[in-house]
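Team,

Forwarding the record for the chain on the shared tracking sheet. I've put the sequence and predicted structure together so nobody has to dig through attachments.
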Amino acid sequence: MSRTRLALLGLLLAVIAGLAWLASRPAADPMDAIGPEAAYIACERAAVGEVMAARDPWRARLPGPQIPRGLMSNDLAPYDLRELGFAEGEMVCAAWLAPPSEEALAQISSEAQAVGEAMRALEGLGRGCGCVAAQQLAITPWISRCRGAARRGRCELDPAIEAQMAERFDALQAELAETRLPRRHWRLVGPVGRTGRFRALHASFASRLGIAGEGYVPGETAPGFGATPTIDALLQLEGVQVVLRMDSGRALLIVRELEDLLIFDLFEHPGSAERWGPHFEVLDAVSYAQLTERLALPSARSGPRPTVPTLIYDHDMLTRLDAVATAAWALEGQLEPTRGETWKVQPPVFVRYRFESRSEDDEEGAAPDQIPREQALELFAVPTEAGRAWLSLGEGGGLADRAAAMAETREPYVFSRRGPGPEYALRGSEMEAGLFDGARSFPRLVGALSAADVAAVEGNIAAFTLRIPGGPLPGELESRPGLGRLRTHLSTRGHTLEGTLEGTQEGIGDASFMRLRLAPGRGR
């Protein structure tokens, strides 16, 4: 064989070996781009081929925040994920990210209050001749009551008013320059399947979802057509494919291909477009460093790699998001976000939930393009200190016997308010009432099942089985807020709830988490 043919044969074998290595290499893990600051995570599998894969049925029945449309998918529809360029059959996760530290959260709150005070001081000067002064100083857009106001030719402008407005505006500008804006930050991430697909088709995706905005691509941005220095700088970052400016500038979507991952980062400004709209560009410019800081991949992961549709709720991070919402309310000029609010809730017994949707197909190793058959819900719940004390009340006997002692600690959950207020992530939500506070209703369920059928409850708090009948629950128990859809689904047939405390062997006080499995078809 000639040297040329040997060289060609060697090249062919190298290519085949390379392709085999690429085929065997595991796909990138979305959790590598989601750190411990994630307050809520929802993971779905991208569709395979032309199969219209079914969405996780449990996610539609459990309470959770609305995934923003700005992430370019219809609530994580599997076909949408595939079309966006994610790898077929791989898990893709949407995460709502909280501020990275308590110190940063405190800084956001104090700075937002200072900016709010500066805004109110400026607003207070916008009366009568004050609007004429605002026109002369070119700061009318910052004063809502002066926008669109006709110039009053007969107004005798007081130079003192003009000087005071200039001073207040300078103070506002100085406060903004130092402020960490309380933006909402969502991240959609998964293994990249088709490189450059979103870059080529981003306009059609936005049009299909009815999203108005401008898209900018590295190397193709034409000056004078809406691009800003902030957008130009974002386009220079590593891996950036597209930057979309949406919702009249209120939202920025940065799409990157980085380390075999396709990453969508959505940042939404706080406050109303009416007040801030003319100055979103200014707000982006003063906080560019914060944007790049939040774009960095985390040094720690949020949890193990998802292999099935997964939901994760983190109580502490959701609480941080509530504090950010309060800061945004202060930025709007509202100093009393809890005015007229009644909120009573006990310390949560679990601080973190991880729900996994499993089916017989998952356990039998079926291909991901098959529609799953029978589905079960597995829950891994991490207890708090209060939760470990609450669980210890169930020690020392059968679960049915100890349920009464656990139920005695239950206090009613109350949340109500009069008038507008912050858009909380957790407080007053179905997640708080139905999941975190609703866990304390577990002993009432045990008691009702045991009273109706003594054989329906087996075991103790460390390992138990509950057989839940179809139809209405015994004892006329009502569903917790937010769990009505779940209960409606469960009522169609009997279910079995199995639970164990997983951890060390020393007892409940050292347990690391509780594991629950809700499976259909076994209840009486």
